[in-house]
């Protein structure tokens, strides 16, 4: 299963996140979900959390931060 926003492969942990109000799967990676987490509470299976998935989503802000560090 892939993130509906950035298309990275979801981890087991990410693929089991469900919205509290509707009980629907969120189908988002943690990075994409972080942008809406204050508005969309979810149930999480912490026992399935791992450090990283198969792909890692990197936002444009992260890339800019990395480039700024490398420029100094």
Model description:
By secondary structure, the protein is mainly α. 29% of the residues lie in helices and 6% in strands. It has three helices and two strands. Strands 1-2 form a two-stranded antiparallel sheet. The longest helix has 12 residues, at 60-71.
Q: What layout of secondary structure does this protein have?
A:
Blueprint: H1 12-15, E1 18-19, H2 30-34, E2 42-43, H3 60-71
Q: What sequence of helices (H) and strands (E) makes up the elements?
A: HEHEH
How is the largest sheet built, in terms of strand order? 1-2
List how many beta strands DSSP finds.
2
Helical percentage: 25-40%
pLDDT < 50 stretches:
none
Largest sheet properties? 2 strands, antiparallel
Supply the key terms.
72 residues, mainly alpha, 2 strands, globular
What is shown here, in short?
This protein is mainly alpha-helical and 72 residues long. The chain contains three helices and two strands, in the order αβαβα.
């Amino acid at each position: 299963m892939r993130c509906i926003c950035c298309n990275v492969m979801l981890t087991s942990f990410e693929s089991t996140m469900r919205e509290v109000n509707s009980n629907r799967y969120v189908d988002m990676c943690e990075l994409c979900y972080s942008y809406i987490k204050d508005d969309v509470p979810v149930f999480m299976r912490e026992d399935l959390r791992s450090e990283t998935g198969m792909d890692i989503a990197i936002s444009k802000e992260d890339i800019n931060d990395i480039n700024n560090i490398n420029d100094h």
